[in-house]
Amino acid sequence: MVDYGDDGEPAGTSPAEEVMTTFSRHHFGSSEDTADGFSVTIIENMKEEYGLFVWPCSIILAEYVWQQKSRFTSASVVELGAGTSLPGLVAAKVGADVTLTDDSNRSEVLTHMRRQCDLNDIKCKIHGLTWGVWGTQTFCLCPNIILGADVLYDSCAFDDLFATVAFLLQSTPSSIFITTYHNRSGHHLIGFLMVKWGLKCVKLLDGFSFMPSYKTSSLSGNIQLAEIVLDTANGDEKKLM
Ligand SMILES: C[S@@+](CC[C@H](N)C(=O)[O-])C[C@H]1O[C@@H](n2cnc3c(N)ncnc32)[C@H](O)[C@@H]1O
């Protein structure tokens, strides 16, 4: 547990650490100024590796969770590669039972996730979950909704990620994987891997199509949001390529 001062800053940080640590505030509501909705504060640590930075995919997925909040109320949600965890924290705020996960080998990220929960007074479970590695806890997760923001960035890890997603989708009937990713050159590979792991895309959106304008000025890139399910029947399939 981290102690925070009256100003919300972690108590006792050295000047060197303060330079490295920033706080970003993310509002979810009908507009930036209204009192409705809520805000989530994220601690970003520039000193650490990429997992401790709020990536644009995370901001877009978190906004989608907010806009789709009725689907998340009382749902069991697992966020993969959560890093700074904004989508999972928003899901918890709207009533989901959330487990935040990240690479078991990166204990600093798991510690950081606990700090995010404490700072925002949000209760989430936190587990190490390395894609493609099955621990006892993985078998007990059984989520209705799996979230993953910017987890499709290293093609070497795609197979492990899809294997984990397929396993989790098989563990709970009618479950869904909602992911945001940069539309780079990897679509053919993503499409191939979905077929390989028995998955299909049922919704594909331009990530900017549902974002309020006040949030888009700081974002760039070609980001897509996909909803992916097990391909158990010959339904309407949207191909990613
Ligand atoms: C680009 S960051 C995205 C972080 C966060 N979802 C966001 O959008 O701000 C990728 C995340 O995936 C995690 N990750 C990378 N390889 C992983 C693996 N093999 N198993 C589990 N997590 C992994 C990293 O630790 C990191 O938090």
UniProtKB/TrEMBL annotation:
| Keyword Methyltransferase in annotation | yes
One term of GO molecular function: protein methyltransferase activity
List the Gene3D superfamilies hit by this protein, alphabetically. Vaccinia Virus protein VP39
Naturally occurring in which organism (per UniProt): Solanum tuberosum (Potato)
PANTHER family membership: HEPATOCELLULAR CARCINOMA-ASSOCIATED ANTIGEN, HISTONE-ARGININE METHYLTRANSFERASE METTL23
- UniProt name for this protein: Methyltransferase-like protein 23
The entry's cellular-component GO terms read: cytoplasm; nucleus
* Pfam families assigned to the protein according to its UniProt record, in alphabetical order: Methyltransf_16 (PF10294)
